[in-house]
Amino acid sequence: MIRITNTQRRFTIKTGMIKKATQAMLDELGYSRFDIGILFCGTTAMAQYNGTYRNKHKATDVLSFPYHDTLKAGEVIVPVTPDDANLGDIILCPLIIDKKRHDWHRSFDDHCVVLVAHAMAHLLGHDHEIDSDYLIMQKLEDRLLEAVRRKLKK
Fold this sequence. Notes:
- The chain contains five helices and four strands; from the N terminus they run βαβαββααα.
- By secondary structure, the protein is α/β, with parallel strands linked by helices.
- The chain has one domain (2-153): Metalloproteases ("zincins"), catalytic domain (Collagenase (Catalytic Domain), 3-Layer(aba) Sandwich).
- The chain has a four-stranded mixed β-sheet with strand order 1-2-4-3, with helices on both faces.
- The radius of gyration is 15 Å and the shape is globular.
- The two termini are 21 Å apart.
């Protein structure tokens, strides 16, 4: 199940589109029946999350919290219990997204979807600390975004 919560009111969030895009990504990964939570929040809440969990005391565009926090990139999740069919949670801050999207020449909605793909890669154990890992992560993100394009065309 995809759970989307929006606690900010400044930006309109197309939750139906986000849910459809997220489901396309889950389907592409073979995790169609896995749970994932997505929270859209304001800058104050995002700064608190970022401070608490990353010791960075400012708002950021996206955070990810994997359920399987020891998963290595490329490993497959095999649920043993119903709770194991959970990828984790993603937190998005629309105000920061809106500011950064211009650097990428994307619409607000498109940038939200790109960040969901990026966060989903993190939920699956990927990171971008070194160039070779970045390239692997980028290929996965591109694959997820292509799956979204195919699904949203229908």
